[in-house]
Amino acid sequence: MACCSSFLLLLIRLFFIFFTLSESAVQIQGLGIGINYGQIANNLPSPSRVSVLLRSLNISRVKLYDADPNVLVAFSNTNVEFIIGLGNEYLENMTDPIKAQNWVQQRVQPHISQTKITCITVGNEVFVSNDARLHSNLLPAMQTVYRTLVNLGLDKQVIVTTAHSLNILSNSFPPSAGSFRPDLAEYIQPLLNFQAQANSPFLINAYPFFAYKDSPSQVPLEYVLFQPNQGFMDPNTNLNYDNMLYAQIDAVYSAIKAMGHTDIEVRISETGWPSKGEENEIGASPQNAELYNGNLLKRIQAKQGTPANPSVPIDIHVFALFNENLKPGPASERNYGLYYPDGTPVYNIGLQGHLPGVPGVEFSFASKNIHILPAVFFSFLIYVIAILIWV
To answer: Which parts pass through the membrane (predicted)?
Structure first.
């Protein structure tokens, strides 16, 4: 009986070691990829099921466009880092310290002890609109939200920034000559000064797809899809660019430098490729989307930097997790997802996950063919213990 007890104790120890090593392996295999979790659809799975899907994919960084409490609760105690958003419609209110404090206390504080909220984006692509009032409210709103975080002791955990469209640039090629639009200088200069002071990254939504769609005869498809190609030489730096996204990133760095700052990191808050589009949306196809996101994923995994900043790995959130059937605009807008709402992949880029629908969830990870079947494993363990106790 003592022998059986010792064996049982050994089995239990092995059980805990197995799961400890499994968890460590998962952390080691981190893909380093972020994902945009948009919800403009009426057929998406529940946040709790999405939580399991993303963890099965080993994706640990998620960007929301709001601060949906259902999502934040669903990801409690998961170690997934969240960027949450304040829509453009909130900017005027956020210039009021009382309203900003109320928002942070209602939307951030109740979740931050359980869910890793690391960033708040105040507004999204504000300068795409011609609304001068919106432009003027952006920086004061960011400053007020930041001061609120400072007052509440949260500024070391949560950074404040905003996401821009690439159209804030007046010139993007060659990358060394990147510059902001002159009409936006009065807004961007003080914005950069604030971000440098607050140690806040500069976020850009960059889509090489648009450049190819607009000029397919002038923009080589291989260049935008990270395929082998001769690339383009920057005549000012003699740096060679073999893909458009990296050229866009370095162009933004150059534009920031032209305004006197070399202390702000550029990150990509959105990039992706649609798997379907209108007839005039040349290049929108599952094949091209698979190539773009698959090749991008390989570069992220390699911790690759851009030619002008080779020591700074690109920081990217891919757009998007699901196809969103209620998004307005051309067909491409509804077809950027890596997954259909039922959890099946739109195309294969090596990410293997599972959207749960029944007990006994299967997890699988892209870099290793690991399958953990909790229900089966526990059943087997209980069966073995029962036999040992009976003996």
So the answer is: 372-390
Could you say which DSSP state residue 115 is in?
A: S
Q: Collect the ranges in the chain with pLDDT lower than 50.
A: 1-4, 7-30, 358-384, 386-389, 391
* DSSP reduced 3-state for 84: strand
Annotated catalytic residue 290: no
Query: C-alpha 259: how far from its chain's center?
Result: 27
What is residue 361's predicted lDDT score, i.e. its pLDDT? 35
User: Contact at 8 Å (CB) between 319 and 339?
Assistant: no
pLDDT, position 350: 80
Fold of 31-357: TIM Barrel (3.20.20)
Cα 31–Cα 32–Cα 34 angle in degrees, nearest 5: 110
pLDDT digits (tens, 9 = 90+) for 294-323: 999 999 999 999 999 999 999 999 999 999
By three-state DSSP, how is residue 271 classified?
A: strand
Q: Which H or E run contains 35? A: strand 34-36
For residue 126, what pLDDT is reported?
98
CB crowding 106-138: b at 16 or more within 10 Å, else e: ebbeebbeebbbebbbbbbbbbeeeeeebbebb
Give the active site residue among 125, 281, 290, 324.
Answer: 125
Task: Check 92, 222, 270, 362 and give the catalytic one.
Answer: 270
Q: Taking the domains of the chain in order of start, what are their residue ranges?
A: 31-357
